[in-house]
Structure formats: structure tokens, C-alpha cells
Automatic annotation (TrEMBL):
Residues 4-96 form the DUF1330 domain. Coiled coil: none annotated. Gene3D superfamilies: 3.30.70.100. This is DUF1330 domain-containing protein. Pfam families: DUF1330 (PF07045). It comes from Microvirga aerilata.
Length: 96
């Protein structure tokens, strides 16, 4: 079974909306087989540079599932909870 990862770097600029977003996005992703692998925490730089943004990594059953959830009406509603409250980089990466 293919595995895929959703990798997110977050800089929260306003806390409003984030607690509810975090709870609901975890529930939505779990319904689609997504689970947290990394959820913040300290980053130990072994080489290169760490810019201080929070790092979150989810594992999903496939790239297709990530695309389906990310583009769903349910996620569109949740996304509104955090819009304007932070800066995100989000990547979907197939596993090996």
C-alpha cells in the first residue's frame, strides 16, 4: 500500500482560530487515514538552518487521499478558521 506525507511549516501570527482548527483538522484527517507523525516540538539542527517555524508531518494512505481531503468542501470550511492567522508552507510527498 502506498504511503504519502503532508508536511507543513507554520508561523502563527495570530493565535485566534488555531485551537479549533487544530482539533477539527486532526479529526478530518483521521477520518481519511491521516495521522500525526510530528506535531511541533523542538528541532535539533544537525546541518543547515532552521528558521523557527513549527513543523507538522502527517502520514496518509496515498497522495490521492491527501489531494482528496485537501480539496474537499470539509477542509475548505476548516481552512477559513486559520486564514489570516499565519503563514504556511504545505507539501505533499509520496513515500518510498
Amino acid at each position: 500500500m502506498p504511503i504519502a506525507y503532508l508536511i507543513v511549516r507554520i508561523k502563527i501570527t495570530r493565535e485566534e482560530g488555531w485551537p479549533e482548527y487544530r482539533q477539527k483538522v486532526a479529526e478530518l484527517f483521521a477520518k481519511h487515514g491521516g495521522r500525526y507523525l510530528v506535531r511541533g516540538g523542538p528541532v535539533e539542527v544537525l546541518e543547515g538552518f532552521y528558521d523557527g517555524r513549527r513543523l507538522v508531518v502527517f502520514e496518509f494512505p496515498s497522495m490521492e487521499v491527501i489531494r482528496s481531503v485537501w480539496n474537499s468542501p470539509q477542509y475548505a470550511k476548516l481552512k477559513k478558521l486559520r486564514q489570516g492567522s499565519g503563514e504556511l508552507d504545505v507539501w505533499a510527498v509520496p513515500g518510498v
